[in-house]
Amino acid sequence: MTVTDAPRIVTRRLRRPRSWTLSSYLEDGGYDGLRKALSMSPSEVHDAVNVANLLGRGGAGFEAGRKWGMLAKTTPVYLAINGDESEPATFKDHMLIESDPHQLIEGSLICAYAVGADQVFLYTRGEFALGLERLQSALNEAYAYGAVGRGILGSDWSIDVVVHPGAGAYICGEETALLESLEGKRGYPRIKPPFFPAAVGLYGAPTIVNNVETVSNLPWVVLNGGEAFAALGEGRSKGTKIMALSGHVRRPGNYELEFAKATFRDLIFDPSLGAGIPGDRDLKAFIPGGVSSPWLGPDHLDTELANEKIAEVGTMAGSGAVTVMDDTTCPVRAAWRIVRFFHRESCGQCTPCREGSGWVEKIMHRIETGNGRPEDLDLLLDVCDNISPGVTWPPAQTTICVLGPSIPPAPAAAVRMFRDDFMEHIGEGRCPFPPDRLPRGVVRV
Amino acid sequence: MARLNPDNEQRARDLIALYPHPRSALIPVLHLLQAQDGYLTPEGMQHVGELVGLEAAEVRGTASFYDMFHTEPVGRYLISVCTNIACMLQGAYELLEHAQTHLGIAPGGTTADGTFTLEDAECLALCGNAPCVTVNWRFFGDMDRARFDSLLSRLAAGDLDGEVPPHGTLCRVRRTVGVPAAGASVGSAGGPDPEWHRRDGTGTGVPAEAARPGAPADGVTDGVELETVASTPAVAALDGPDSGAIR
Ligand SMILES: Cc1cc2nc3c(=O)[nH]c(=O)nc-3n(C[C@H](O)[C@H](O)[C@H](O)COP(=O)(O)O)c2cc1C
Ligand code: SF4
Ligand code: FES
Fold it and tell me: Of A103, A356, B35, B171, which has the highest C-beta tally within 10 A?
């Protein structure tokens, strides 16, 4: 059974043999989107993207066309593609970079043409060694083919593209930290305002930052028109989205689905998608949109996969990373691991984030290892409240970037949904779930 | 083992020329340094500073922010075991514990013979093949104890030398062209012919054709062929019941 018969837009080429080569790309009509874009004016391309209502795929879901419209029209203008993908359980950009680098290059060029950029930087997560090699090879081929560089595809438009490796820092996915990093500095998010790199970005010049998946949609949008894209999905959520499915499912993987035409239940249980939980165990909870998002339980399985539908149930679609936890999962351990991640990755500029993440990690660790005290739950929520006042959704922010307010959602959801499990840890002085201990050698950070 | 050797210094200058400001090349050039020596030496960082116009302390200040950069020697193989949420749910901590026993070192440690360094890593973006590890950032998914052991013995025997270069080597494919279009933009298209120039202002530049040598160096003649053995990119499984994630 297929959940939706919508075309696959960004993943359609992924199973082609040697999909990352120019010859394979050209067989599938590669660079025709760029060719068509060059026959249009930049503002016509921009209009098509506005009609498509292409939402950013990097997590915040901001309309790409609207972002481009906010660009301060001075020169130079830069385009930075965000390929730093490090949100835990998100693995879609990794796949797009490794398997279809030409599509990413073509999409970036279309974006650069529409916004009038002077240079493009493909900021790629440093850990993606194979991805960097494939992307650099593809770029070499694209230059030789004439799709990048001077006089692109016979037109009088010229632009350079640079593959830029990161060096291992989650925070460099935050767009202002990414720009600092691209300037050769520590990846410290910038103080806002100015809120948008489109006004003040790389070297202070106007800069567009878009996600890998966002721009990978552009060749299709240009070739098929904004209307065709907007005909898919519903409401604000148009087109398709890659859902990265992980955790306790039979078939984890990246699934490109039309927005609003499938539910979490389809994604997790449909035989053509996740195919259910191994051993037919019960679903305990799932993380709907990356580890910054509040968790959902079985009650919310019928929520449609669309940004606003997911927002309605008090969480977010985020980067499209869904992690499934079956009934053997210890919620304390799961939430502790998420908090530990934020503690390790906090850049340290803001006290609530730097200190708060460590405090929450310590409290969760002691509960998980059987040393929790009854008053720890209140203490935990109190520290969360100090990081993000009210511990509400969407979270209040007291810090420079959104990493800080991303700390409380997981532990707060775990306490709200599974208070009994926490109390059992504390009452029995040990974790009631197998394996009932944290392995030795867990480095304290 | 100190400063960048002449070939790498030239590569560093080529990298710097790609950016509007030299400092932007700092991270790529540090990767080059780490590829040369396996880690960042003080003399090397001093040299990189001279090239991009920074004090050695500023270079170290930036480098120390990033997890991939090591300022102390590491083993030939850096084994990173992801223990983040998706991998943890599939037994990553138990795998890490096994790795510690097998190698006789704790996370952060290096074996006495300098072959292996073990690391407890954050999400490596291969969560569809959890639990996963990387060796010098080459991916190995769907790990269990047996596969882990055989991976280590193949590495130790040199069977994977072609796939997994020594620690530090990141991208073995070189850029084959400079910045031929620098200075051009939609704004200038149709206007005066964009000038050929290097962005650091050091030359009048070269036309794209001339700047395009035949093949990348390092013996990697066609980088597009590279495919890490046993790397298992989790790929869309959409077409039918038989198409699971590629394994
Ligand atoms: C802590 C943090 C980490 C982020 N990581 C990423 C990332 O890895 N990739 C990404 O595309 N966006 C990431 N973002 C979102 C970016 O700041 C930015 O919104 C996005 O790249 C814009 O592209 P889009 O509009 O195409 O989605 C992150 C944001 C925060 C606050
Ligand atoms: S919220 Fe955290 S990660 Fe973001 S700037 Fe502040 S300290 Fe850094
Ligand atoms: S959680 Fe291990 S690779 Fe993502």
Answer: A103
b/e map of A3-24 (b: 16 or more CB within 10 Å)?
Answer: beebebbbbbbbeeeebbbbeb
Least Cα distance to B120 among A369, A336, A440, A248 occurs for A440
The tokens of A104 are what? 């990413």
What are the phi and psi torsion angles at A106 (to 5°)? -60, -45
* Interchain proximity B83–A113, CB inside 8 Å: no
* Sign of the torsion formed by the C-alpha atoms of A212, B178, B163 and B39: negative
**pLDDT tens digits, one per residue of A290-313:** 999 999 999 999 999 999 999 999
pLDDT of A445 above 90: no
**Number of alpha carbons in the 13 Å side-chain half-sphere of residue B59:** 28
Cα A195 to chain center, whole Å?
A: 20
Nearest to A404 by CA among A419, A391, A418: A391
Greatest extent of chain A over all pairs of C-alpha atoms, in Å: 73
Extended strands (E) in B47-152:
77-82, 116-121, 133-135, 138-140
Distance CA A223, CA A201 (A): 30
Gap from CA of B52 to ligand 3 centroid (Å): 35
Quick one: which H or E segment has residue B15?
helix B6-16
| End-to-end CA separation in angstroms for chain B | 40
What is the spatial distance between Cα A326 and Cα A336, in angstroms, rounded to a whole number?
17
- Residue A323 tokens read as 């992690």
pLDDT, one tens digit per residue, over B170-219 is 999 999 999 998 764 433 333 333 333 223 333 333 333 333 223 333 33
A310: closest CA among A417, A406, A237, A392? A237
Mutate to test the pocket of ligand 2, among A87, A343, A397, A403 (most ligand atoms within 8 A of CB): A403
On whether the CB atoms of residues A294 and A395 are closer than 8 A, the answer is no
**Which of these, A298, A225, A232, lies nearest to A263 by C-alpha position?**
A298
Eight-state DSSP code of residue A304? B
Which residue's entry shows tokens 């992307």? A135
Instruction: Count CA atoms closer than 13 A to B213's CA, side-chain side.
Output: 8
- Residue A161 vs residues A147, A176, B211: alpha-carbon distances, Å: 11, 20, 15
Contact B21 A203 (CB under 8 A): yes
How far apart CA B200 and CA A76 sit, in angstroms, is: 15
First to last CA, chain A: 47
Question: B126: closest CA among A138, A12, A254, A137?
Answer: A254
User: Which residue's entry shows tokens 């955790």?
Assistant: A247
Measured in whole angstroms, the distance separating CA A173 from the mean position of its chain's CA atoms is: 9
Q: Which of A93, A174, A399, A406 for mutating ligand 1's site (highest number of atoms within 8 Å of CB)?
A: A174
pLDDT band at A73 (very low <50, low <70, confident <90, very high): confident
CA B87 to chain centre: 22
CB-CB contact of A328 with A433 (8 Å): yes
Half-sphere exposure of A144 (CA within 13 A, CB side): 17
Centre a 10 Å sphere on the Cβ of residue A289 and count the other Cβ atoms it contains.
Answer: 26
Distance between CA B25 and CA B18 in Å, rounded? 8
